[in-house]
Write a structure and sequence with these properties.
Strand order of the largest sheet: 2-1-7-6-5
Order of helices and strands: HEEHEEHHEEEHHEHHEEHEEHHHEE
Distance between the termini: 116 Å
Structural class: alpha+beta
CATH topology of the largest domain: Heat Shock Protein 90
Number of strands: 14
Number of helices: 12
Shape: elongated
CATH superfamily of the largest domain: Histidine kinase-like ATPase, C-terminal domain
CATH architecture of the largest domain: 2-Layer Sandwich
Low-confidence stretches: 364-369
Strand content: 15-25%
Oligomer: single chain
Largest sheet: 5 strands, antiparallel
């Protein structure tokens, strides 16, 4: 392609002096722009001389930001860090400056520290530091520092974190409450199902006996059936009473009535109560009471129920021999122990005998009246009194139950 001379546009002619002036103008504009940017920046920009330990440039006075002024001007920057730096941050700040004396060019170190505002409150600053100039030997001479007050952001983050933690805690509590309610519902459902089964057995026996009574004319057989009905009615009455007591205990978080009680005195009353039953089974009850026992504090009716349950349990499972009941004090605990020479408990049953409606295999095969609530009631009563119940047993030898109260 051939280009005509008329199509060629000559390059503009710029003199050297004009070019120099133009470059100087651009630099001046850049300098003005940089100053304007630093003036409007939220950051505190400064250049720190490591040798003189002085700030040789700053876009704003840190003293003014912190609310400190004097008649002649603002507080000196060095004074700010000597006087207003939080005591816990002095060493950290000094270590940071020492590290900058060995820093490479591409390293940007960060630090947070607290400075005291004129209001007396502490303000939190986040600062980045990097090497700005080096000496001829390459060691850092001046460093560029860019700091920003992050108190509000930090406080907001802290509040947000606290709010989130509170919400998480509330959600966890709600979840725990829901889980607890679900467990309660499951227990209630199981309780009702088991109760229905326990009630059905004596009711069936009563109905059968009533049916047979109508068919019988023999007075002796009628008397036997009436005795069976009487026993089952007693069992029903006891079962209903125990269920009512256990439901009341479940609803308690603490005892409503607390009195000083003598365990020895309560056991003396129970000895009289069990006299007829012991004589009927030809069992001997040996009492061994420690002297000068301290009182326990609690609900008398509930403690009587706990004592009665373990004594009754010993009598129920002992056909021949002796039942020993004793009280003792061990350091800061009062202990009531009941030992029998009964049939004992299998090792696999021992871990479950305090569960509700738990019946050992020998109870299922025998005609013993055992609803499986007495020991569960005893454990709950002891828990409400800050105590515990412990069982020891050997199959074919006997069992020992310990009721333990703190004193």
């Amino acid at each position: 392609m051939v280009v005509a001379d008329s199509d060629v546009r000559p390059e503009p002619i710029v003199s050297y002096s004009d070019a120099v002036a133009h470059n100087e103008s651009d630099k001046a504009d850049d300098s003005v722009l940089l100053k304007k940017l630093l003036q409007v920046s939220r950051d505190l920009v400064s250049i720190y001389d490591l040798e003189t330990e002085q700030i040789v440039y700053k876009n704003r006075s840190l003293g003014m930001v912190l609310g400190y002024t004097t008649y002649g001007g603002q507080v000196d920057e060095k004074t700010v860090f000597q006087v207003l730096l939080h005591p816990d941050d002095v060493v950290v700040f000094a270590d940071q400056l020492a590290a900058m004396r060995l820093a490479a060019d591409n390293v940007v170190k960060e630090i947070t520290y607290r400075l005291q505002h004129s209001s007396g409150l502490w303000r939190l600053f986040a600062e980045q530091q990097t090497v700005f100039k080096r000496r001829s030997d390459g060691t850092p001479w001046q460093i560029l520092r860019i700091a920003r007050d992050i108190t509000e952001q930090h406080d907001s983050a802290q509040r947000l974190q606290a709010d989130n933690a509170l919400k998480i805690e509330e959600l966890q509590q709600a979840a725990d409450k829901l889980t607890l309610e679900r467990e309660k519902m499951q227990l209630v459902s199981k309780f009702i199902g088991t109760t229905a089964h326990e009630l059905r057995t004596p009711l069936t026996i009563i109905n059968t006996s009533l049916y047979l009574l109508k068919k019988m004319s023999d007075p002796l057989k009628q008397a036997e059936r009436l005795q069976i009905i009487e026993n089952q009615v007693a069992q029903l009455s006891r079962l209903i009473s125990q269920m009512h007591l256990l439901m009341r205990l479940d609803s308690l978080s603490q005892l409503a009535e607390i009195k000083p009680l003598s365990i020895n005195t309560l056991l003396t009353k129970l000895e009289q109560e069990f006299g007829g039953l012991l004589a009927k089974k030809e069992l001997i009850l040996q009492l061994d009471f420690a002297d000068n026992l301290p009182n326990v504090y609690g609900d008398m009716d509930l403690i009587m129920a706990a004592l009665r349950n373990v004594l009754e349990n010993a009598v129920l499972y002992t056909d021949v021999g002796t039942i020993k009941a004793q009280t003792a004090r061990y350091e800061n605990k009062l202990v009531f122990s009941v030992s029998d020479t009964g049939i004992g408990v299998r090792a696999e049953d021992l871990d479950h005998i305090f569960e509700r409606f738990y019946k050992m295999e020998k109870d299922k095969r025998s005609n013993r009246i055992a609803a499986g609530l007495g020991l569960a009631i005893t454990r709950r009563i002891m828990e409400l009194h800050g105590g515990e119940v412990i069982a020891e047993s050997q199959l074919g030898v006997g069992s020992t139950f310990h009721l333990i109260w703190p004193v």
